[in-house]
Amino acid sequence: MQTLYSPAWYEVFGRPDDAVTEREVSFLLRFLPSPPATVLDVHDLEWFRAHQGPHVIERDGRRIREHKLMAGDRLHVTLDYEDGTRDAIEWRLYGPRELRALAADSGLACVATCAGFDADAEPSGDVPRMQLVFRRT
């Protein structure tokens, strides 16, 4: 199977709103090879619903204070750095059923799903990322 994996998929989903997401997905689908197949690697809505609140990330000896909050289907993340700077990010998260419907509207069928890049694990909210494989119908 020929696949297309693009960082553009990650950047498109949920930012800034549903209409933009749908328009951008339709645009990106025009570039799928034939036979078209693509892997969508996105955050799992259910995992983030269960893992809200503060968290400390340590990387390269630096500490970053992270705070995650779900408001409906939108994830709000605030990152506070040791130097006093802050990043605030917001995007919409989708469940597998919603992604299948969005893809179907664009002429794609979901042929496989998994969680954490484990082909034997279905998206269930147990890991933060899920993958769906789509082909043009």
The gist of it:
With 137 residues, this protein is of the alpha+beta class.
In words, what does this structure look like?
The chain has about 140 residues and is α+β, with helices and mostly antiparallel strands. It has one domain (about 5-135). It has 4 helices and 7 strands. The protein has helices spanning about 5-10, 20-30, 45-50, 95-105; strands at about 35-45, 55-60, 60-70, 75-80, 85-90, 110-115, 130-135. It has a 4-stranded antiparallel sheet with strand order 2-3-4-5, with no helix packed on it. It has a 3-stranded antiparallel sheet with strand order 1-7-6. It is globular, with a radius of gyration of 16 Å.
Task: Compile the SSE list and pairings.
Elements: H1 7-12, H2 18-29, E1 37-43, H3 45-50, E2 53-59, E3 62-71, E4 74-81, E5 86-92, H4 96-105, E6 108-115, E7 129-136
Antiparallel strand pairs: 1-7, 2-3, 3-4, 4-5, 6-7
